[in-house]
């Protein structure tokens, strides 16, 4: 399942894509280890789909190099295609076929021998708890069942790397949890490298490592905990008897950038929990409650880009859109 020992599953150096004079991707460098869950986090329009499309050989880079499972995406596109699976955001399974027939059709496209296909399809359906629905037309499936089927279809030919465009967008929270359980299981049982794009912080939290992309450029990369540690400061929220006075004291005595809002008084401080006793002792107003929250990926995004990911959103565009635009 993994490539040669030591060969990165995905490697890119100086990857750029220009559309006319528009720079969609401006010099992306990244390296993803075999068996890793790697997330590409960024707002809509940041360049995620363009980058992933270059890695999947759907778009030719304007500049730079990339290799997937040790094969160059420009010089050896067929080798790359044989070693990757793709899961688009939009459903691409055939609703008039059964779950099993959808998978069988895909296996035939990849030239899998019949017996191997039968065995693999059964194992895949079992892995995503769809065995009992194998003979049911996909038209009757829920969104989550469809997505599970799409994901195992992408895995059917045992790719080294499964690329997923926003794997749980549009699904309800319970289904998202289930999909992630399946994705972790796939990585753990089969060693598949997962490379996904997302603009959702919760989705990025499932990754071993993420790269934050903004305006076509990677602005930060690392394990989610490492990235959060860079922020260093916790968010403290206080409910007090007099928020305005509390803010005044915090600013004047502690030189902290506190602000009062509908949720109470908010401020940031290093090692928030240790700071709370001093804070409560010094405040001249009654404190009703205190919460201390460690930094989130949203804080990390804000730190590196100067805005929250929601503010940065420009409008949805997906990998499937990109494929369509190329036609
Ligand atoms: N074929 C194209 N022609 C012109 N501009 C394009 C084309 N494809 C992408 N772009 C532009 O390049 C930039 C990056 O787009 P891209 O789709 O890669 O972003 P994204 O981060 O994947 O966002 P989304 O999640 O919406 O797909 C955007 O400004 C987009 O409008």
TrEMBL record:
Gene Ontology molecular function: any one: ATP binding
Domain of life: Bacteria
Main localization, broad class: membrane
Alphabetized Gene3D superfamilies for the sequence: P-loop containing nucleotide triphosphate hydrolases
UniProt xrefs under InterPro entries: AAA+_ATPase, ABC_transporter-like_ATP-bd, ABC_transporter-like_CS, ABC_transporter_ATP-binding, DrrA, P-loop_NTPase
EC number annotated for this UniProt entry: 7.6.2.2
Keywords: Antibiotic resistance, ATP-binding, Cell membrane, Membrane, Nucleotide-binding, Translocase, Transport
Location of this chain's protein in the cell: Cell membrane
Keyword Amino-acid biosynthesis: no
Every ABC transporter domain range: 10-240
Protein name: ABC-type xenobiotic transporter
Organism: Streptomyces uncialis
